């Protein structure tokens, strides 16, 4: 069987089923991975920030967590599925620079690193849509490579400290 390999970048989302392997590389961005075991549908998004500013054009459907989840919900509904039937995984939200390390020590909300904000947004979004959170690997000082196999829903993550 020929398995298609796809790499998604920030602001992208893939949803479907069949012989495909999806991967992405994350720093402070977050990937949400969804899997519906009964139907074999799944997907991954790679978002940059929790919410879309009202002043920014809507040209990257998965650049923001809120928009990515709305798109996942629409794609699931088109297949007569509900996100509440999916298992979810959250990866990323790392800190990559010395400045982010200092912000995490200071702890003030306005100084909170973007990776932490992204991870929090992902948890809140999955809970809002009723997704069963099966796994989370977020935070720390480093980056992650995430892979999803759309044939069977298997997902793996590799963490590299900086």
UniProtKB/TrEMBL annotation:
Keywords: Chemotaxis, Hydrolase. It catalyses: L-glutaminyl-[protein] + H2O = L-glutamyl-[protein] + NH4(+). GO terms for molecular function: protein-glutamine glutaminase activity. Its EC number is 3.5.1.44. It holds the Pfam family CheD. GO terms for biological process: chemotaxis. InterPro entries: CheD-like_sf (IPR038592), Chemorcpt_Glu_NH3ase_CheD (IPR005659), Cytotoxic_necrot_fac-like_cat (IPR011324). The keyword Hydrolase applies. The keyword Repeat does not apply. Gene3D superfamilies: 3.30.1330.200. CDD domains: CheD. Belongs to the CheD family. PANTHER family: CHEMORECEPTOR GLUTAMINE DEAMIDASE CHED 1-RELATED, CHEMORECEPTOR GLUTAMINE DEAMIDASE CHED-RELATED. Probably deamidates glutamine residues to glutamate on methyl-accepting chemotaxis receptors (MCPs), playing an important role in chemotaxis. This is Probable chemoreceptor glutamine deamidase CheD. It comes from Idiomarina fontislapidosi. The gene is cheD.
């Amino acid at each position: 069987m020929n398995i298609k390999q796809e790499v998604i970048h920030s602001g992208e989302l893939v949803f479907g089923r069949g012989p495909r392997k999806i991967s992405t590389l994350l720093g402070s961005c977050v990937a949400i991975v969804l899997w519906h075991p009964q139907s074999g549908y799944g997907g991954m998004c790679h978002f940059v920030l929790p919410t879309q500013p009202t002043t920014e054009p809507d040209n990257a459907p998965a650049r923001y967590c809120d928009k990515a989840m709305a798109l996942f919900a629409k794609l699931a509904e088109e297949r007569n599925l509900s996100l509440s039937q999916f298992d979810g995984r959250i990866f990323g939200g790392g800190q990559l620079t010395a400045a982010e390390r200092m912000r995490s020590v200071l702890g003030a909300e306005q100084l909170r690193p973007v990776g932490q904000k992204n991870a929090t947004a992902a948890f809140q979004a999955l809970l809002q849509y009723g997704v069963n959170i099966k796994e989370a690997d977020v935070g720390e000082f480093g980056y992650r490579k995430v892979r999803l196999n759309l044939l069977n829903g298997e997902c793996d993550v590799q963490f590299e400290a900086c």
